[in-house]
């Protein structure tokens, strides 16, 4: 009897134990990225930018050339890399504190210049790495260590919808929001990431996929409940949607 | 034959950087360095090289970081308030050991200050203005020719030691027009096997400064400091003039050195034996060249466009062996040659 492997670890995913908490969305998305790098045969020409956040050591898991970036500056670092090496495939991986708070200026201007690189934006509605503080994406009423009574929009404003904001700009080639709350949506997310990769490979310009993602620890829930929370509550505020998409098949 | 042109210091520097093989320029407008970014905007695209006007100095330095990580010769330029914003990025460049060129055409501060020339960023430049305890090599040009020549040296040193290099100029040198002999050169940066190029047929490269595992960061820091010690040993540059018989040693760099040079000529006419030691590298600081004169000189005079910053390094070099005097103006004030001459006379009468 011969054995056929129906599923193997993607080649671009290193054989390492991930240090992410059980039920964290980062690991799911890393795997999708690795699969796509393999499918497009991009390992030999990929340069990735890691954020400051829980996924700062994404290079421990993804077997491609990697640069760290200062907190929020990934779009500027990716701009420098892509301009320096236009033939390379460049993606930046950013969290919501990184992208939507400290790095807001950099992401808007990279998008507005139509920089031809891909942003993978993990929105888990909290600051994971620093211990669950309020993020610009924290939902109204959601408890975090710096809003212990729940986020009060009167004094802290409302969660920022990045895709909608960037969608006011003319240059971006792709803007989409998705979530990794279920196997079906994980597959959908992969399809959207594939389109974003294609956008860049076809030279269409800036592409960003926002991924609503669970952080069970600081959402203060069991992993399964965090998935449901993403599906029911997070996506109610941040609608899952393709805002624009210019890649051709 | 080499071509001679009349040009501003800022444009001379820009052309020098281009000739030194600058692949990528990222900047943000600020006076008194605007001639530099403007020159790059015209000439880099013509040469099919990278020019980006960034949304801020923060973005510009991080673009430099990206291009340097990708193995290219990258630079940015700004003036004092913008250089403050670049400090985070410079710390990351230092931590990740990326070569890059940063130009500061200093203006007066603190705060928004004014666009008048100043040398009040000496501390920021030579102490590693960002966090973490690092060094950058700091070069101090004093005329348009050196503005033109130093980018080549800066890129070579940056590549050799994998370290950010700063050219610390000021608004006066940046904006005045002088004849410059244009460099003819064919830059050849060393191979950069650590650079990010796509991991084709090799293990992946990682550009990082985050080393959370116990002990690793200490090892990394020790390596950085061993490298800094090498640089201190090998790369000190200074120019001595009229020091063989000098009783008064003036120490000054950049615009101050121009003023001091004129004042020394006046003093010599009156029989005062003054000479000058002009640091060309501010870090590594020319401690040994200063010390080698201490058996002859009776007093040292430091001239700066500040309330006295480099004078601290001079005092550390002199270690109390002779008196160290200071003369400077602050807040954009520039002394005349006569003012400096008067100070030299005062020091001479105190001997
Ligand atoms: C300049 C600076 N400010 C603050 C920090 C501390 N810090 C590290 S990660 C982080 C937020 C991370 O949150 P997010 O981007 O949402 O990513 P997550 O950890 O949730 O994946 C902060 C504030 C830092 N490293 N640098
Ligand atoms: S803190 Fe949250 S984001 Fe960070 S690893 Fe844990 S679950 Fe993931």
Verbal overview:
- The complex is a heterodimer of chains A (249) and B (351).
- Chain A is α/β, with parallel strands linked by helices.
- Chain A has a single domain (26-245), classed as Rossmann fold.
- Chain A is built from nine helices and nine strands.
- Chain A has helices spanning 25-39, 74-84, 96-102, 104-113, 153-156, 162-166, 183-201, 216-219, 223-237, and strands at 46-50, 65-68, 89-95, 118-123, 126-127, 133-134, 174-179, 207-212, 241-245.
- In chain A, strands 2-1-3-4-8-7-9 form a seven-stranded mixed beta sheet, sandwiched between helices.
- In chain A, helix 7 (183-201) links the parallel strand 7 (174-179) and strand 8 (207-212).
- In chain A, helix 3 crosses helix 4.
- The longest helix of chain A is centred in the last third of the chain and has 19 residues, at 183-201.
- Chain B has twelve helices and 16 strands.
- The relative contact order of chain B is 0.13.
- With 351 residues, chain B is α/β, with parallel strands linked by helices.
- Chain B folds into two domains: 4-234, Rossmann fold, CATH 3.40.50; 239-349, Rossmann fold.
- Chain B has helices at 9-19, 34-46, 57-69, 80-96, 122-126, 144-161, 171-175, 216-234, 254-269, 287-291, 310-318, 337-350; strands at 4-8, 24-27, 50-53, 74-78, 100-108, 114-117, 137-139, 164-170, 177-181, 206-207, 238-241, 248-251, 274-279, 281-283, 299-304, 324-328.
- Helices cover 41% and strands 22% of the residues of chain B.
- In chain B, strands 2, 3, 4, 5, 6, 7, 8 and 14 form an eight-stranded mixed beta sheet that branches.
- In chain B, helix 1 (9-19) runs parallel beside helix 6.
- The A-B interface holds A 43-47, 49, 56-57, 59, 63-70, 73, 75-85, 88-89, 105-106, 108-109, 113 and B 23-24, 26, 50, 52, 54-56, 58-60, 62-72, 74, 88-89, 92, 96, 196-201, 204-210, 212.
- Strand 2 of chain A pairs parallel with strand 10 of chain B, so a sheet runs across the interface.
- Bound molecules: thiamine diphosphate and iron/sulfur cluster (SF4).
- Iron/sulfur cluster (SF4) is lined by residues 20-21, 24, 26, 54, 124, 128, 215-218 of chain A.
- Thiamine diphosphate (TPP) binds at residues 52-55, 71, 95-98, 122, 124, 126-130, 135, 215 of chain A.
């Amino acid at each position: 009897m011969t054995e056929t492997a129906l599923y193997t670890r993607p080649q671009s995913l290193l054989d390492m134990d991930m240090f992410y908490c059980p039920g964290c969305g980062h690991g799911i998305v890393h795997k999708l990225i690795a699969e796509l790098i393999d499918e497009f045969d991009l390992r030999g020409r990929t340069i990735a930018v890691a954020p400051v956040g829980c996924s700062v050591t994404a290079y421990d898991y993804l077997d491609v050339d990697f640069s760290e970036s200062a907190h929020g500056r990934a779009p500027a670092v990716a701009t420098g890399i892509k301009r320096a090496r236009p033939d390379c495939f460049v993606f930046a991986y950013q969290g919501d504190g990184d992208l939507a708070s400290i790095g807001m200026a950099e992401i808007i201007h990279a998008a507005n210049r139509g920089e031809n690189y891909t942003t993978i934006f993990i929105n888990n509605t909290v600051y994971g790495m620093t211990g669950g503080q309020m993020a610009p994406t924290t939902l109204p009423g959601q408890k975090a260590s710096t809003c212990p009574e729940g986020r009060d929009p009167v004094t802290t404003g409302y969660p920022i919808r990045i895709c909608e904001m960037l969608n006011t700009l003319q240059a971006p080639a792709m803007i989409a929001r998705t979530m990794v709350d279920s196997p079906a949506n994980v597959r959908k997310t992969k399809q959207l990431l594939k389109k974003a990769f294609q956008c860049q490979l076809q030279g269409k310009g800036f592409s960003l996929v926002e991924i609503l993602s669970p952080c069970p620890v600081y959402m203060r829930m069991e992993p399964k409940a965090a998935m449901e929370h993403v599906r029911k509550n997070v996506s109610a505020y941040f609608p899952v949607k393709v805002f624009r998409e210019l890649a051709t098949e | 034959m080499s071509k001679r042109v009349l040009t501003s210091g800022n444009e001379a520097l820009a052309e020098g950087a281009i000739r030194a093989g600058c692949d990528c320029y990222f900047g943000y407008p600020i006076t008194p360095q605007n001639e530099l970014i403007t020159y790059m905007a015209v000439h880099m695209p013509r040469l099919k090289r990278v020019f980006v006007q960034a949304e801020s100095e923060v973005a510009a330095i991080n673009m430099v970081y990206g291009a340097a990580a990708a193995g290219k010769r990258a630079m940015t330029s700004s003036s004092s308030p913008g250089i403050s914003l670049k400090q985070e990025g410079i710390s990351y460049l230092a931590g990740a050991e990326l070569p890059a060129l940063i130009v500061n055409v200093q203006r007066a501060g603190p705060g928004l200050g004014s666009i008048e020339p100043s040398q009040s960023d000496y501390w920021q430049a030579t102490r590693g203005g960002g966090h973490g305890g690092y060094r950058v090599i700091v070069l101090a040009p004093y005329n348009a020719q050196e503005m033109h020549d130093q980018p080549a040296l800066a890129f070579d040193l940056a590549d050799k030691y994998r370290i950010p290099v700063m050219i610390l100029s000021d608004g006066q040198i940046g904006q005045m027009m002088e004849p410059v002999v244009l460099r003819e050169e064919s830059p050849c940066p060393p191979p950069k096997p650590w650079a990010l190029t796509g991991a084709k047929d090799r293990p992946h490269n990682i550009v990082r400064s985050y080393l959370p595992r116990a002990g690793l960061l200490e090892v990394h820091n020790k390596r950085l400091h061993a490298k800094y010690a090498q640089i201190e040993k090998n790369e000190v540059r200074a120019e001595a003039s009229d020091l063989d018989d000098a009783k008064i040693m003036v120490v000054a760099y950049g615009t101050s050195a121009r003023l001091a040079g004129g004042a020394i000529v006046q003093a010599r006419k009156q029989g005062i034996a003054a000479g000058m030691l002009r640091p060309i590298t501010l870090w590594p600081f020319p401690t040994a060249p200063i010390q080698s004169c201490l058996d002859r000189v009776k007093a040292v005079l430091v001239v700066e466009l500040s309330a006295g910053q480099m004078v601290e390094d001079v005092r550390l070099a002199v270690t109390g062996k002779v008196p160290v005097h200071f003369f400077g103006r602050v807040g954009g004030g520039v002394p005349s040659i006569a003012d400096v001459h008067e100070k030299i006379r005062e020091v001479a009468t105190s001997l």
